[in-house]
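Backbone Fold Data
Goal — fold tokens
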Amino acid sequence: MARRGSGVKNRRMREVRLSDGIIALSPLRLDDAQAHLAGEDEPLVRWLSGGRGTREGVEAYIRYCREQWESAGPLRAFGIRAGADETLAGTIDLRFAAEGLDPGQVNVAYGLYPNWRGRGLATRAVLLVSRYAAREGGKEAVIRVEPANAASAAVARRAGFLPGKHTHGEGGTRLDWYVRDLSIETW
């Protein structure tokens, strides 16, 4: 699980669905709220959200995410869906603008629910959203990880991200950056 980072042309949302044949990514929906709450555990709260969710809070966040899709805002939040029934297995989001990012950099943040970890799904999701970010004009993908979050750093490395600089987030927390060039040639 990687930390989430902090006016694009106005256009109507098109329903985006990305898939590699094993997982599918699609925008979060209100009916994902209960599955998300059921999947929250201590690592997800610690590394990704910073606090336990409530039904109202999760639904408000999903509505915000939908508004971002509708307005082509800087946030693109996806549900990671697995299995034949495309069960919600986690979330992944892109931020095309966030504090500390240079123009063209895109922040990638992800988290899987406990029953879905250890299967390579996060790496697959990172690769899918990185390709999407490149098509949407991103030049470099960035994953910012607290040093103690070894699992998230391993996902970044498996997805071809290289260690970069170190910064500090809110409260002075050290963040290790992993970066990947999104040039078409690298895919």
